Amino acid sequence: MSTAQSSKLTTGKWLQNWYLAGPFQLEEGIDEYQHLGGFDTDFLEKSGGETNPRVNDGAKIKFDGGFVNWKYYKSPEPVINLDEQISKKSFVCAYAYTEIESEVEGVFILALGSNDGGSLWFNGKQVWDNPSARGFTEDDDLIPVAVKKGKNTILLKVEERGNTWAFGARFLPFNLNEFVATQSLFQVNVNGAGIPVLRFLLNESVAEKLFKSVQIEIVDSSLKNTTWEGNWPMIKDIVLPVDNKKYQKNSLKIKATLTNGNLWEKEIPFSSGKSIFYSLFENGKTDYVITIGTDASESEKWSAKELQRWLQEISGAVFPIKTDNAEMTEHELIIGYNKHSISILGSDTKIPAKTDETYSYKNDGAKILLLGGEERGAMYAVFSFLENELGCRWYTPSVSVIPSKEKFSFNYLNHSESPSIQVRNDFYYEAFDPIWAARNKINGAMNFREQHGGVEGYWRVHTFFPFMPPAEFYDKHPEYYSLIDGERIHERAQLCLTNPDVLDIITERLKETIRENPEYLIYSVSQNDWRNPCQCDKCQAIAKKEGSESGPVIWFVNQVAERIKDEFPDKYVGTLAYQYTRKPPANIVPHENVVVRFCSIECCFAHDFNSCSENTEFLSDLKGWAAIAPHMYIWDYVVNFSHYILPYPNFKVLQSNIKTFRDNKAIGIMEQAAYQSRGGEFAELRAYLIGKLLWNADVDVDEVIDDFMAGYY
Fold first, then answer.
1. In angstroms, rounded to a whole number, what is the distance separating the alpha carbons of residues 311 and 308?
2. Can you list the domains of the chain with their CATH numbers?
């Protein structure tokens, strides 16, 4: 039992009252990252041991090889100079012991600096060990310790390799957020058998003072599927219960309630299972075949040929294409959901809708599965695999970068993505090329075009007069057109939307259009590209009630949409929120099969929508429409339309603006640009970047630009 003197715990104050004992001879050594030989010997074994030493001033410590005495030392300096107080010998160690009285219990930082390394016991439990050779640095190690109310003991063991021999210690307040900014509380280690073990890096006594409870959850690499969850038992190590039969990546989510009631969360990625590398190709040879279903879609067949083409260009190896009627082999690149992929995934696998663009690619042992909906999803999996894993780039229709590789091997593939925007219309001339568009996940078009995987076409715009040409109707039925200042006119006018004949004619002609052109997704019933809405009493009654000229338009389009939905349940009627109709109506809500095409033509594009006062009203209108419209389709503008080659400094706002649209229910975005021909300020770069942003609004813009500049130029 110790009868040592105690000091009061005062944060920030150096501990200067110590009992010292030594030196204890160690073995000479030159490995600066391991303790000197003999350091792990408990020289206090015969006097209580390192976990419970008996310390008195002058007390003798007997050990194999001799004895030393404890001596009390009150240092005039913060740093305890062991060269002066113990010995100037090298390759030795010494003990320092003190006791601290605390008026409170809790977690504190014991800040320590030492020359050289050593070990530390707090209240009989080892809380720190550093085997490295090092110089003295104030507060070099910040060690959280669980302080008890009353007496607390500190035993420090410091080794000496040569030069200065010293240490210094003090208590500091513990702040969890500051601590975890530089150090970790937990880590996951994987042993040789591939079994992951969660380790608490501090002493268990700290956990009891720090946490009320800790919940842990294991999710797969998609971060969507929970594979296990439970409570952490507040012990040093626990084996994480995950399948280690095959190599996989996981993430551990920690949610802790602290003793002060605050919450703390941490996510730790880790792997499990043994890592095995598989060779896709090497030295111009491969064992792999590309497998598609016997009933593969057109885009799956084409993407198989694309995969074959680019892999051969990369590796020099020929990858044969076979169907799933062939017997499954160990080395396959399997495209889409077919007999081979289903046999791997399981018969209960849910096959996505053919229009589902979410894709994934992953390996099952040596086999690589490239999966997604049959129209475009599986095709996107192929191109993303080539892009992400092998470095392929299709910057423009005429500039591609396909790297040559001697070999490619993998141990783990598991990547999945879904589009930020459902319909992605990159309205640059370069982006109209259907091959480039398919490779870069552009699926939207103003008009229909033949493209692998198809496109989500938006049939026309400004269609009031194309549906009801004044040359056909005005002479006999001027009442079909706008009443302006008491006169029915058709020049630069609109339609009278409350006239029932107009509704009948528009509806029937829209039905005829859909029957004749069934390949589109959205069909426009929209105002002409000028103003002059009808001023008749009925139209204006709706406009005034709704507080906007959009009122009569939505009132009219809703009726058209209602009349066509039974015959065309998978089609949408689109209309514009543009200039005089940009403000949303106060009461009328667009029907489920109505798409509001919202236009940003009046905006400032030098600043993003959220930070510029000139865009305040626009942003208010956007949010107003998003609150009532089931579907928004954006018509945005990204170039200087006065002259395409003039600088247009909007690279810093493209991402923010697309995110704003995404967050306000945009199912589609058309980025109108230089569309008549090639040419325009950074046209190729913008077309490429916009394509990336429409697919993934959170992409790293600088990374995309740097990649393009390095690869294209």
1. 5
2. 6-174 (2.60.120), 180-272 (2.60.40.10), 278-418 (3.30.379.10), 425-712 (3.20.20)
From the list 393, 463, 451, the residue with the least C-alpha distance to 426 is 451
pLDDT tens digit sequence for 469-525: 999 999 999 999 999 999 999 999 999 999 999 999 999 999 999 999 999 999 999
Cα 434 from Cα 195, distance rounded (Å): 48
What are the b/e assignments for 252-268, b being 16+ CB within 10 Å? bbbbbebeeeeebeeeb
Decide: helix, strand or coil at residue 98: strand
Q: How many CB atoms lie within 10 A of CB 617?
A: 13
Strand partners, 130: 118
Report which of 502, 472, 474 is spatially closest to residue 487, judged by C-alpha positions: 474
Kindly report, residue by residue over 321-376, the tens digit of the pLDDT.
999 999 999 999 999 999 999 999 999 999 999 999 999 999 999 999 999 999 99
pLDDT in tens, 241-289: 998 888 999 999 999 999 999 999 999 999 999 999 999 999 999 999 9
**Helices 701-712 and 683-695, packing angle to 10 deg:** 140
CA-to-CA distance for 534 and 481, rounded, in angstroms? Answer: 7
- Return the closest-CA partner of residue 29 out of 131, 141, 164: 131
Distance CA 590, CA 631 (A): 9
Give the 3-state secondary structure of residue 613: helix
C-alpha–C-alpha distance, residues 241 and 188, integer Å:
12
Helix (H) or strand (E) holding 507: helix 500-516
- Between CA 188 and CA 196, with CA 191 as vertex, the angle to 5 degrees is 40
* Listed residue (194, 187, 188) closest to 244, CA to CA: 194
The pLDDT value given to residue 3: 57
Tokens of 324: 């799933």
* CA torsion through residues 138, 74, 38, 109, sign: negative
Question: Considering just the CA atoms, what is the radius of gyration of the chain in Å?
Answer: 36
- 521 and 458 in contact (C-beta within 8 Å)? yes
Look at the block and give the residue holding tokens 């500190």. Answer: 154
Q: What is the structure's pLDDT at 243?
A: 87
The whole-angstrom separation of Cα 488 and Cα 677 is 40
Q: What share of the chain is helix, strand, coil (3-state, %, to 5)?
A: 25, 30, 45
Nearest by Cα to 170 from 14, 7, 17, 19 = 14
As a whole number of angstroms, the distance between CA 631 and CA 593 comes to 8
pLDDT at 7: 87
Place of tokens 């194309």: 466
| DSSP secondary structure letter of residue 265 | E
User: In the chain, how many H helices and how many E strands?
Assistant: 16, 40
- Which residue do the tokens 């209309």 mark? 575
- Tokens linked to 359: 């894709």
Give the neighbor-by-neighbor strand order of the sheet with 211-220.
226-231, 211-220, 248-258, 263-272
Backbone angles phi, psi at 596, to 5 degrees: -95, 120
Give pTM, 2 decimals.
Answer: 0.83
Task: Name residue, tokens 């170039």.
Answer: 639
DSSP track, 223-245: SS-EEEEEE--S-SEEE-----S
Q: How far apart are CA 128 and CA 132, in angstroms?
A: 12
Buried b (16+ CB within 10 A) or exposed e, 59-71: bebebeeeebebe
Phi, psi of 10 (to 5 degrees): -135, 115
Q: How many CB atoms lie within 10 A of CB 37?
A: 13
For 197, the token pair is: 């073990």
Phi, psi (degrees; rounded to nearest 5) at 271: -115, 165
